[in-house]
């Protein structure tokens, strides 16, 4: 009597877990969907620069900024500030608020208990910021060019300057937003802490007013913070070369712009690594 041996079933090999970059990209898509579901965030972060540009350019569009040697139409002068503040709102303010809220409702605590690498979580946040900021800026430039006849840069060097100022400013704002998210005591108080800081920086950094017209003490205070330099870097892209005479230093100061933004980027990284919390203060 012969015995038959049943064939051995091959055990399927386990699929390797996605890498840090792959999970980061997936997390960025999840973050983007969550952002779009928050209608108030979409309006006040994504559409805010477009709304302010439309209002200010309509009201003051016929005025010029500067003197006879370097005057430019108001809408053209106002655009760089709106690009800069859009970057700041989408990176610094958005991340500082959203991460604080996620910590307060235990979202961060639950994510920390999953296999999701911490690096992938932050890559997801930064990816969402880059996507929103790119769409926001593109819409702002399109609105300015078509509705208010603001001339766009015509040289490759100008667009190259725009690229490095935009990327460096977005990276700096994102890192600072992550670092600052640990400052508010709870998710309920975060808007009350972050929003006044952003508003003050907008008023003293040449976003709503011509920077050269501000009091000298205010200019000196603003020069410590990155928004002033981000706005100045954007003015070097969208304003004619002779408008550099309107700057406090008499030039665009690209070297100083890069140095200040990099310095704040490093400060944000150091502070963020040392102070970031996955749990609420009252959760041990």
UniProtKB/TrEMBL annotation:
Residues 40-279 form the ABC transmembrane type-2 domain. The keyword Cell membrane applies. It is found in: Cell membrane; Membrane. It is a multi-pass membrane protein. The chain crosses the membrane at residues 41-61, 81-101, 122-145, 157-180, 192-214, 256-276. Pfam families: ABC2_membrane. InterPro entries: ABC2_TM, ABC2_TM_bact-type, ABC_2_transport, Nod_factor_ABC_transporter. Signal peptide: none annotated. Keywords: Antibiotic resistance, Cell membrane, Membrane, Transmembrane, Transmembrane helix, Transport. Its main location: membrane. Belongs to the ABC-2 integral membrane protein family. This is Transport permease protein. It comes from Oerskovia merdavium.
């Amino acid at each position: 009597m012969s015995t038959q041996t049943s064939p051995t079933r091959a055990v399927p090999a386990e699929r390797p877990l996605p890498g840090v970059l792959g999970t980061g990209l997936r997390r960025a898509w999840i973050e983007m969907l969550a952002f779009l579901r928050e209608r108030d965030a979409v309006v006040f972060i994504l559409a805010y620069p477009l709304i302010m540009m439309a209002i200010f350019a309509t009201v003051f569009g016929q005025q010029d900024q500067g003197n006879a040697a370097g005057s430019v139409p108001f809408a053209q002068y106002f655009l760089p500030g709106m690009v800069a503040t859009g970057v700041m709102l989408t990176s610094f303010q958005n991340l500082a608020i959203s991460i604080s809220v996620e910590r307060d409702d235990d979202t961060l605590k639950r994510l920390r208990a999953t296999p999701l690498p911490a690096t992938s979580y932050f890559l997801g946040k930064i990816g969402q910021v880059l996507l929103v900021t790119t769409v926001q800026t593109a819409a702002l430039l399109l609105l300015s060019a078509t509705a208010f006849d603001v001339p766009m840069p015509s040289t490759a060097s100008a667009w190259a300057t725009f690229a490095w100022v935009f990327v460096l400013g977005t990276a700096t704002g994102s890192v600072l937003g992550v670092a600052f998210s640990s400052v508010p005591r709870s998710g309920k108080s975060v808007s009350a802490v972050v929003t006044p800081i952003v508003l003050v920086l907008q008023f003293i950094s040449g976003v709503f007013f011509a920077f050269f017209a501000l009091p000298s003490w205010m200019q000196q205070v603003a020069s410590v913070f990155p928004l002033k330099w981000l706005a100045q870097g954007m003015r070097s892209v969208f304003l004619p070369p002779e408008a550099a005479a309107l700057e406090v230093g008499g030039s665009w100061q690209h070297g100083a712009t890069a140095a200040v933004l990099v310095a704040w980027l490093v400060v944000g990284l150091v502070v963020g690594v040392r102070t970031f919390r996955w749990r609420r203060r009252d959760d041990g």
